[in-house]
Amino acid sequence: MTFILGLTGSIGMGKSTTAAIFRSRGVPVHDADEAVHRLYRGRAAPLVEAEFPGTTVDGVVDRAKLGAKVIGHPDRMAALERLIHPLVRADRDDLLARARAAGAPLVVFDVPLLYETGADKECDAVLVVTAAPEIQRERVLARPDMTPERFALIHVKQMPDAEKRRRADFIVDTGRGLADAEAQVDAIIASIAARTGETKD
């Protein structure tokens, strides 16, 4: 049995760092954002161009051109999601199938809007990455091209951190440094190993 752990967290909470820790422990991780970037360079490009003409350059989706067409237009954004979400799901299913074939005891699905899209229902448990609000804000505003206004727009679309933590099976606080986050991840891996070991008996 391969245990599916959903990984999520609001912007700036340290989700990418936490995913990297799992990878360093040999755990297969499916990164939804990375999958979208890869699909935009491959099989999704002609589909996006057909739906939104003029949004690809040399067979690759130009995210700025696409954003100009869909941001602020809920109907167009919904049409884009109808195109992309099934491709991301298929990509995730492929990783899971390969992990199961290899006998991997654990896989991680890294999904930014895990609860918001209902993807948590496909997981055996959910890990929420968190940090203090002041740490989150400092991290986000340090990013290139990020403004307080843009941060506010992103923040309001995401489920509140407190609600995510309330629903979570596991929590990693990344505000105490990398070594501490690594120790938290190791404890979660050990906990899942013990749990799956019990279910196999």
TrEMBL record:
Coiled-coil regions listed: none
Keywords: ATP-binding, Coenzyme A biosynthesis, Cytoplasm, Kinase, Nucleotide-binding, Transferase
Name assigned to this protein: Dephospho-CoA kinase
Protein localization: Cytoplasm
GO BP annotations, alphabetical order: coenzyme A biosynthetic process
Role, per record: Catalyzes the phosphorylation of the 3'-hydroxyl group of dephosphocoenzyme A to form coenzyme A.
Organism: Chelatococcus asaccharovorans
Catalytic activity: 3'-dephospho-CoA + ATP = ADP + CoA + H(+)
